[in-house]
Amino acid sequence: DKYPLVPFGNESSDAKSLRIFEVDGDSMYPTIPSGALILAKEIPEKSWHYAEGVVVAVYDTFVVVKRIVKNDLLLNNILVLGSDNKDYGQISVPQSDLRALYKAKRIISSTIR
User: Fold this and answer.
1) What is the pTM of this model?
2) Disulfide engineering: 42 pairs with which of 17, 29, 75, 96, CB 3.0-4.6 Å?
3) How far apart are CA 80 and CA 111, in angstroms?
């Protein structure tokens, strides 16, 4: 499914590389609640080894929103991803499994509790 994109500020210059993802689950709570829509910018493959912070990682058959714990793509071809929710752990993703990487920019919609 596709969500409409309404660029904010200088985001219109990056419109072609922006995507909206819906978060399903509480692994990134309290930073990002389940059901939130987040705006993310595609990171070109040649720049994956510079990625940091919260990302949307597409690997194997998974699309996950996680925080980069350790970016070791340059030396050991591994990206270690973790959750902000302490009830969840970490996962090491080999570069060969990565299909896309997006930098999470902001929450654009979330339920008020």
Assistant:
1) 0.88
2) 17
3) 29
